Amino acid sequence: MRYPASEKLEIIRLVEQSHLPVRRTLAKLGIQPARFYRWYDRLQTGGPEALEDKSPRPKRVWNRIPDAIRERIIQLALDEPELSPRELATRFTDTAGYFVSEASVYRLLKAHNLITSPAYIVMKAADEFKDKTTAPNQLWQTDFTYLKVTGWGWFYLSTVLDDFSRYIIAWKLCTTMRAQDVTDTLDLALAASGYLASSTDVEGVSGKYFEKRLQRAPDQAAQDDEAAARLWEESERLAGYSVHQP
Known about the structure:
Layout: H1 5-17, H2 22-29, H3 33-46, H4 67-79, H5 85-96, H6 102-111, E1 140-149, E2 153-162, E3 168-174, H7 179-196, E4 209-211, E5 214-216, H8 225-239
Antiparallel strand pairs: 1-2, 2-3, 4-5
């Protein structure tokens, strides 16, 4: 399926602002990662107009923005430098009553060296982070784990993991995957990290359960080895992979 440049740009914006990992967001949109990254590279190097499919025939410039309008757009960009090309295009169209596209504003700003760094950067997946962490609280990872409960439906386990210690700092079982669910889990992590991730009182302590800075015995259900084994087997079945495979 061929996408017009406007739809490609909209897909890129959705991925940039999604709280889900890039590949998971693309899977929900039905876009192949390789295809998306080609679009993204073209956007970064050539702006929105680079997303247009190339035509074998050169286009005639029949709708060039008048010089007076171009000067007003530049002045607006100088007056409000925090606005992106999309926001500038929208603001100018609303206030001046003259439609300009994001691509046109981008080209104009680029010609005057007024393009700033993007607010969001999509990171391509790699085997490991280039800049490795050397201490707790330097990098946190967030994730959703899908849990299907027979007779109840889908639940989503939101977690915050400290990259250095590999400890799950906070978790929350949710019925949705909204941005607010991630924010709530991060708030829990912020409340806990000051003690568990950095206090010398728990240095060297692993595999224990804490509540309000006090070590507590986990629930009886959490200590059921048979239930843990069944959960592991079911997880392997759903993932189609076993750590016991040669």
